[in-house]
Design a protein that fits this description.
α3 runs parallel beside α4 and α7 packs antiparallel against α8. The strands form 2 sheets. The protein has a 7-stranded mixed beta sheet with strand order 5-4-3-6-7-9-8, sandwiched between helices. A two-stranded antiparallel ribbon has the order 1-2. It is globular. It is α/β, with parallel strands linked by helices and 261 residues long. β8 and β9 form a beta hairpin. The protein has 9 helices and 9 strands. The longest helix has 20 residues. It has a single domain, classed as Vaccinia Virus protein VP39 (Rossmann fold). This is Ubiquinone/menaquinone biosynthesis C-methyltransferase UbiE.
């Protein structure tokens, strides 16, 4: 399952002092602002965005991601890049009335959409909403039993810092889980996937959301994200133990798991 992957030869690392924003190199200090503009633009149509990117399968991936998480009643959970609350809502029944979930996102507009969505569903108890930067979490050490981040790590400027922070705020024995678009494993499928990502997706974004640029960035950000084996190594370097990953849908996305010991 854990196959070795390498970066395509035509992709070059970002120059010193810069980082990737899709396929563009931008100053490190600007990426957070640019990513924020993207998600402020798509916040109101976040579910549509994920449906277009995954052909609707993201809902199945998220349910599997939550159903296989190490979590029990009474646990305290941090859901980073919580977006409109999909993961937090699925986790709520698992932690029960005595548990709690902190829904964190760097983008205030996304948090507002998530809070309003929960309120509309009548699910208000047991949630906290905190605007946070995953690279500098405002929580004490060993605060959470489970830390999750779904389809958000690739948008973080300093992924290593975010992984170290996730490890820091976990209790001993706690689990971290990352769900993220990844590198497809079947060579025959890669051209089909590329066509959907770079031709179909921006066109659908323009048609349904009036925004093709944001959807173009999101497709590019997937290709610049570390592939499965590299991300596993990054989690190990951040201090996590028993790191593993499981490919879903042929590697379109993958679930990464690590523990604090």
């Amino acid at each position: 399952m854990n196959e070795q992957h390498s970066t395509p030869p035509d992709e070059k690392p970002a120059a010193a002092g810069t980082t990737h924003f899709g396929f563009r190199d931008v100053p490190v200090g600007e990426k957070q602002k640019l990513v924020g503009e993207v998600f402020s633009s798509v916040a109101g149509k976040y579910d549509l965005m994920n449906d277009l990117m995954s052909l609707g399968i993201h809902r199945v991936w998220k349910r599997y991601f939550v159903s296989t998480a190490q979590v029990k009643r009474g646990d305290r959970v941090l859901d980073l890049a919580g977006g409109t609350g999909d993961i937090a809502l699925l986790l709520r029944d698992r932690v029960g009335e005595t548990g709690s979930i902190v829904l964190g996102d760097i983008n205030g507009e996304m948090l507002r959409v998530g809070r309003d969505r929960m309120t509309d569903k009548g699910r208000v108890g047991g949630f906290e909403y905190v605007q946070v930067n995953a690279e500098k979490l405002p929580f004490p050490d060993a605060s959470f039993d489970l830390v999750t981040i779904a389809f958000g790590l690739r948008n973080v400027t300093d992924k290593d810092a975010a992984l170290r922070e996730m490890h820091r705020v976990l209790k001993v024995g706690g689990q971290a889980r990352v769900l993220e678009f990844s590198e497809v494993t079947a060579d025959w499928f890669k051209p089909v996937y590329d066509f959907h990502s770079f031709k179909v997706l921006p066109a659908l974004g323009r048609l349904f959301a009036g925004d093709s640029d944001s959807y173009q960035y999101l497709a590019e950000s997937i290709r610049k994200h570390p592939p499965q084996a590299e991300l596993q190594a990054m989690m190990e370097a951040a201090g996590f133990a028993r790191c593993r990953y499981r490919n879903l849908s042929g590697g379109i996305c993958a679930i990464h798991t690590g523990y604090r010991v």
